[in-house]
# Entry
Amino acid sequence: MTQPFAVNVLTTLSLFAAIATLQLLPVAPLSQIPAGTETTPTVPFFNLWTLGHNGDAVLGERSYWNARFFHPEAGAFALSESQPHLMLLAPVARLISPVFAYNLWVYTSLVVNGLSGYLFARRNLQADFLPALACGVLLQLLPFVNLQLGVLQLIAVWPSVLLLHCTFQLTCNPTMPKAVATGLALATTYLLCNNYGLMGAIVVGTVPGTVLFIRHRPSCSLRTSLVTLIVFLTVVGPVVYQQWKILHAGGYDRNSETVASLSAQPKDLLVSSWHSGLTIPGLTSSRERPLWGLSGGLGVYILAVLGTLAGWHNRPLRKWTVTLLGILLISFLLATIPGYGDWGAAIHAGLCCFLPGLSRIRSVYRFLAFFQIAAVFLSTVFLVQCQRRWRAMTTSSSRPAANVMAVGVVISFLSCLVEILPDKTYVCTPQWQTDQPFCEWIRNQTASHDVLACFPFPNGSETSDYRHEVDWMHAARFHHRPILNGYSGFFPTHYLNLKEIARLPPGRELYETLHKLQVRYLVVHEDWYAAWHGSMPQMSNNPAMTEVFFDPQNHVRIYRLL
# Structure
């Protein structure tokens, strides 16, 4: 190892580690977790539960797919992102705390995001140290990641960058080792984030995949594509099979109206997430919702346009420039098309027939993660060309002009950083304890097969409405009993029906439904039931049930159905 290379590596890792520290500066690593721009902790707490469930499974304390929520749904864990890589954090969660393990993964992911951008630029964009470092910094500060910092599986974009790298190399020279590497990269992307895996497969298959078939013999392209698919299915087969079995059997299809409501509109890409950058004034939403701050940075957009022009005029970089531009356009179309009324929904439905996995993606605006990644790489192309131009000018008599250009590029880059730096990161503090009295009572006084219904159920369909469902899921990890409650990416039909019934004060229909679902105990938070105009006294005097425990610390009462 030469000294300059060692110094470069140390400098790069130190910079990315420092940036990650600044990104997570508001977070107390032992007691808080980041929530990004989300003001409700439902999703972060659910991901913390997912980390705990993976840890319980690897230590042999749980059945992996048959998690104890959404009873009697079999394989309920397949309805959400399983994130099996979190099993690696089980020792840290057990020895220190799940919160620390969660934050450790977030921190590591941010650092590796930056490192992946640096390595991608060095390997594929012919960047020297400084342009590659700039690429890594822009990728680590990707607005989409900071915006979604409370969604654990969306933080790690480095597998998607790895997938792009392997695919680029495969299109240059389609060999069996590179096909295997591409399959492994796609599998890694899918296991860490199902959404990124599906979106990456679609985007990569549409753009670099087309390039592969155009540039090489069909037999060679088919052979390498088949090897990539076989490797991918071999690695993710157990996960994909369980998900397919549960989702197919339950008929879990995405509603077209839901997909349309979760699609982006072009104006969203011009509004800063933190309203602190170069946001174009006067923009208004064309739908019945406020504009989402999905801008990748207007400064980055400008550099990306300049990078596209510069890359087109540089023959060695032209193929990468065209490929990145194709990824940018395809990602934009897939993120926005479902929102264009009936014809947009029809086009999306048609694409679902030809693009496997697209029908399972609810939040199609997340395709913009690939849009922003492509924009960063195109910006890097411009920085690479500027550095080459600067070197050529400094060897001639144009040194003053070269210095002026260098200052201009540095100022442009710094303005991009100022624009995309988040000015606020919400944090949330979990309050669960393993020694909660009502959990202890359930664990010691009930049978392992006794089913619980925890009240109240959500009184709406917003993410914030499911906040207490996640609390009940965490409690189930401690008392080890199946519950009717739950939260995930898909909701069973019987749960949605029960949720509607449970929104009303307790009545005959509710009790009959609970008996059909073989519920033995009701776990009720009395403060929440106070809004039901005296429902608690009705429950206490109900001859069909009897109170068996009261937890004054958590204001929880437990009733046994007779």
